[in-house]
Structure formats: C-alpha cells, structure tokens
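pinned: reference chain
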Amino acid sequence: MIKPDRKGIAAIPWYILLPVILAGTGVLVPLIYLLIRAFEADAEALTTIVFRQRTLTLFLNTVALTGGVLILTTILALPLAWLTTRSDIRWKKLFTLLGILPLAIPSYVMAYALLGMSGATGTFAELFGIILPRPSGYLGALLALTLYLTPYLFINLRAALLGIDPALEETAQSFGYKPRRVFVKTVLPQLRPALYSGGLLVALHVLGDFGAVSLMRFETFSYALFLQYTAAFDRIYAAWLAIFLILMTVSLLFVDARLLRGLRLSRSGRGTSKQTKIVALGKWKLPAYGFLSMLAFISLIAPIGTIIHWLVSTPAVIGFSDLFSALRGSLSVSVPSSVLAALLALPLAYLGVRYPSTISRALERVAYIGYAIPPLAFALSLIFFSLTAMPFLYQTMLLLIYAYTLHYLAEAMGPIRSALYQAPPQIEEAARSFGYHPFMAFFKATLPLLRKGIIASMAFVFLSAMKELPLTFLLSPIGFETLALNVWSYTIEAMFAEAAPFALGIVVVSGLFVTLLLKQERTHL
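pinned: its structure tokens
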C-alpha cells in the first residue's frame, strides 16, 4: 500500500516537488518586490503615507462595505437555503437554480444593470414609467456586491443544511423545544463552518472588488489603488495601498482560522442518515414565495432584462466584429489559464493528499496566497517585478496568463483534490508491481480516475477568468480587449447601449458554464 509520508521533503518525488516550488516562487517573488518598492520611501515620507487622513477614510469605507455585504448576504442566503431544503414549497429545483445563477453576472455587470435600470432614462422609466433613484456611492456598491455574492454564501449554507443529522433536531424536540428554538439552539450552531467559509469568500471578494466600486464611485482601498496607479503616478503610495489590502486579507484569514479552531461538529451516529423533516409553512407559504420571487427578480431577471432592453431598444452601435474581437480576447487568456492552472493544481493536490506533512501543507497553502491577495494588489506586485527583473514581460499576454493562472490556482485545486480522495492509492501500487515507474503508474492508473475533477477544475478557472477585470486592466497589452474591459469602460462613461452586447456576452457564456458545472457536480437542486 502507498502510505502517506510524514518524514519530510526528501520523500517527495522531484516531478511533484518542482512544479509546486515553481508555483510558490511565482506567487511569493512578486510580493517581495512589492515590499521592496513600498519601503523605498524615507521615514518621514513613510509616516506621511501611513498616517494620512485619506488612508483612515479608505480603511473605514472598506470595512463598512465588507461588513454591510456580509450582513445582507447572510440575511438573504440563510432563508433562501432553508426554504429550498427544509420547507414544503414547490419548485425547489427552480428556486435553487435561480439562487445560484447570479454567479454568472459579475459585480461590474450587476452595477451596470443597476445603473441602466434607474434614472430618468433607465429601463424602469421607459417600460413602467417608474423613475428609480440612480444608485451610487456606498449604497450602490453595497447593493451590486450583495446581489452578486449572495450565491457564494447560499451554496455553502445549503450544503450544510443538507448534511445536518436530523436526529439532532429530533433530540431537541424531545425536550419540548419549539421549532424556532430548535433552529437557534441546534441547527444554527451546525451552520457555523458554512457561515465562516462562505463569509470569508464573500469578504475576500469585497476586498478585491474593483468594478462595482469604481462604477458606483465609492472609494475603497482597491479603487484608490487603481486611481493612484493610473492617475497620480505615485507608485510608492500605490504599493502601500496594496500592502494595506493584503494586511486586511491576512487579518480575515487569521480570524477565520481562530473561529474554526477546536470546532467539532459531527453526526450523532453512523450509517445512513435519516430523512430530513420537511416543515409545513402554512400561512407563511405566500410570503415565502414572495421572498423567493422578489430575490430572483432583483438579482437575475431585472439585470438580464435591463441588458436586453438596452440591446434591442437602441440602434446597433457595436458591430458584430467588435463583439467577436472582445470575445476572442477573453478566450485567448481564459483558455490557456484554465489549462495551466489545472496542470499546476494536479501536483499540488497530489502532494497534499498522498504526502501529508507540515512541509507539504505549507507548500500547498502557497497556492491560496495568490487567490487571497486582492487582484489589484497582486497585479501591482507583478508590475513591479516585471519592470525590475524582467522588463520584456511587462504588458504581454504571457504575464497576463501567468497572473490568471496563479490567482485562480486555488479554485483549480478543489475538484482535483476531491477526485484524488476518491481514487484508491492501491491501484498505483498494483501498477508499480507490474514494473511501472511511479510516474507512469500514476499516469496509467490514477490519472484516468481524475478526469472529471480536472475538467471541473478547468471549468471553474475558465468561468472566473472570463469575468476577470482588475488583473486584465493593469496587466493586459496595449490595445488588448476583453468582454469585461468593454463593459467597464463603456459603463464608466454611462454608455449603457454600447456596453450591453459585451455584458450579455459575459452573462451567456458564464451562465452556460454555471449550468454545466451544476449538472456535472450533481448539485442537490
């Protein structure tokens, strides 16, 4: 039997260790250059940068937006998850799908839709005669990010609710607790891991968001970093803004680790779990349908309807060639990035599953650094690195694909790791017994069992890369166009009709991939 090795780095084959080290170096070296650039300032300038009033304002704005989105996504995702798993409503599969599909509408497209449907010339004014106030600032960014990020928390909470042992609730009911108290005392504590992990994912997205906050004109660290780099040309201050963002991210990761430390939630018994009890809503059924329908309308139907309205109600201003060129640009970076990310994720996941140790865990965690770092901060570190060490890479497709690959490497690891856990290591031992080299034994015996995981891995990265904006904006070659860049650049100038074809292109491609991923993973709909 192939036993997990816990002795150290020497036991790990070189063909597994080498790509892992390359991935870790690729993430860490640019960050070192970022630190070097930040500390180029003298002590007096450094004090002025760190303690200026604007830095405090940006910090408070970023914290307020992150906290607000966390609260609102929880308010929306928790009842949505409960209703689609525990209640007696009909069409649960449909409402679950409608709850997940907003993932196909990136935050900047959601912001575009909110701006396009409001105001005197917006969709609602033209179709219904209702002039909605145009969102902007904190409330606009809060609404756009909440609608986009609610599915991340919903997916986590729904999976947790489906995995809770009904016997725990039955035990609480046997003590005379009413349903509401059973939920608070028994169910809610079981949801803590899902709340923490989903909340962390939501918070990381808010910290790294650039599209929605820029369109809504709300200054957070990400938006200020972009303005500082592109307009003010103060690269040292931009480097410090990136470091502040990274410090906030590290703080979130630390808090999440502390919250999960010592947490033990297990089933009350073994074997097949009991059937989850379905709760009859009675008089609350109509409000439940109203909540589900309203959420689907606000987060999915209205945004897509707004995009289509601007597309069909205005004479064609964007030619098919322009749309095709932007789509080709998006594909030209998304496809190779998804393939490379899966290729790098394979040895990383194999290292963590087959050779668990302190060293392997440390090497594996490096992949998550690139994902946890806000995209603009990561892009800025790559700019400093390329200009200083490899100027020939600056503003090239190679650097952009490199950034995409390392940033989304963590997303690629999940499906492959899950597939590895399901692939018994004994089959590699059997292949070795027939004289195969360990590498060929893996290639012949284990790799075929990972096919679905690798495909899902590439699909996840492709989906994220198609929607990527910050990395593309700072790192892409001059004249390079993607669907995301066109949506943002036209919307920032309030050219909603021009942005519509590109926004619809993102929604259609992303929607197809979200649906395919749901089908492949056989999500409980």
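why pinned: The CA atoms of residues 342 and 412 lie 6 Å apart. Residues 70-219+296-306 form a domain with the MetI-like fold fold (CATH 1.10.3720.10).
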